[in-house]
Protein: Teichoic acid biosynthesis protein
Organism: Schlesneria paludicola
Amino acid sequence: MARIFYSMAGEGRGHAARVRTLAEHLKRDHELVLFAPDDAYEFLSRCYPSDRPDPNVRLLRIPGLRFHYTGRKLDLMKSIGSGLHYAARELPRLVRAFRRRIQAERPDLVITDFEPSLPRAARRERVPVLSIDHQHVLLAYDLSSLPSELRWYAWLMGFAVRWHVSGQTEAVASSFYSPPLKPGWEHVRQVGPLIRPEVAAARPTDGDYLLSYLRANTPESVLMLLADLGVPIKVYGLGERPPMGSLTFCPIHETQFVTDLAGCRAVACAAGNQLLGESLYLGKPVLALPETQHHEQRINAYFLQQMGVGLATELESLNADLLQRFLVHLPEYRRELQRRRGQFDGTADTLTAIHGLLSRANPRVLSAAG
């Protein structure tokens, strides 16, 4: 049995969903300590509650980086300023704390999902580090087909990815799309989305409603457009509130969310890699709605549309004609999804990468677990 330290970014639910997918498999043979900030901690605390502890999973809260919003729009300058403050003040303290914990508990492997402090500490303590995230797409993938604005963003953000996880022993990039790797990045392992066990177990059906997952800063004008569509829509992410036209607002409940996702006709949502991947895995066409300033999600949305499995537009540009076009083309999207069936689960490949690194770092651990 190996001891694995696993840290993650805290913004949104995608990082935590990936971690939970792997944790549910790894905990059968290994001891896990999960380090989660903010949204990720809230998500995982429902999966691993302190009053019902899992013998092989410990969940600990850490500080993390966050996006900042002004007037319901992503504020890049504030987010960058907050990141610089974190790097100067919080990061050195966290690295020191992690070094002490590593010295005390001696993990066999560190895994990180776009969290900077644990891999820095692990590198200084000579513990192997495996990076498993979506952000390596920006660094390692050939994104030359993107529009120039998004290519520039990917190039710029590549420096941030390097800063977060530089020096890792190996890297896995999880994404629902897989253009070729750039020269010099052939060592990065490309895998599909990491599908949570409850999503993998779901049996998709074609219901009469759409499912929508939106961020809390979604403009009311977008909700009004959706409400006037004339199709029942179950909305997650905005909390409970009175119905609005054809919209029903649902509280966050992971089991019910998966049930509704599996039973919907199609999905209209923010363009995070995890939810897009789970939707495509279940055969659901997607209307991807990234915020204009959320360039990473705009890249996801671009590739989704290029694959022919959905439609993409910036959230702020949504209009009634685009909504109708999405509905009209649902049969075409479904046919393409059927053709791509089996492409949207990278869980097994990722577990192979984890066990491969563990066996090379400490063969005795895996032979004992097996």
In short: The mean pLDDT is 91. Residues 47 and 292 are 32 Å apart (CA to CA).
